[in-house]
Amino acid sequence: MRSTEEVVETLRAALRGVGVVLPSLCVDPVTGASDEPFALVELGRCNVRVAERLASVVRGERPPLGTYVTDLRDRRIGEVRGHVGGKVQLRPVAGGREWDCPPESLEPAPPDEVLRAQVRRVNGTRRLPC
């Protein structure tokens, strides 16, 4: 039988694999230090976005809410905002009009491309008037 610490690390890795990070995930210190044969796992607190993404993963939605994907039809990068009628609803990272995409036309967006789009968005909102 695996230790509670091993189970917590397995859960942490599985959640990370689907884009969910629970910052307070740990072995409950009270039950972990007791003679209790099965210590409790403290899932901890998280913000609303993480909770929303976790719910999406539990529902089996692919890709999960809040992840960044590339629309292979035109190479646009978007954040997954919903799943309706067999389509994935995407919001542009750099701003603009939302669009729907079939799930088979999506792939995970490269982190460097997401960062570039986020920088373009910030730079666009902070330009000084000439």
**Termini separation:** 68 Å
Structural class: alpha+beta
Report helical residue fraction: 25-40%
Low-pLDDT residue spans: none
Task: Provide the succession of SSEs.
Answer: HEHEHEEEEEH
Describe this structure as you would to a colleague.
With 130 residues, this protein is α+β, with helices and mostly antiparallel strands. It has helices spanning 4-17, 29-33, 48-59, 111-125; strands at residues 26-27, 41-42, 68-71, 76-84, 87-92, 99-101, 106-108. The strands form 2 sheets. It has a 5-stranded antiparallel sheet with strand order 6-5-4-3-7, with helices on one face. A two-stranded antiparallel sheet has the order 1-2. A hairpin with a 2-residue loop joins β4 and β5. The longest helix is centred in the C-terminal third of the chain and has 15 residues, at 111-125. The protein is elongated, with a radius of gyration of 19 Å. The mean pLDDT is 89.
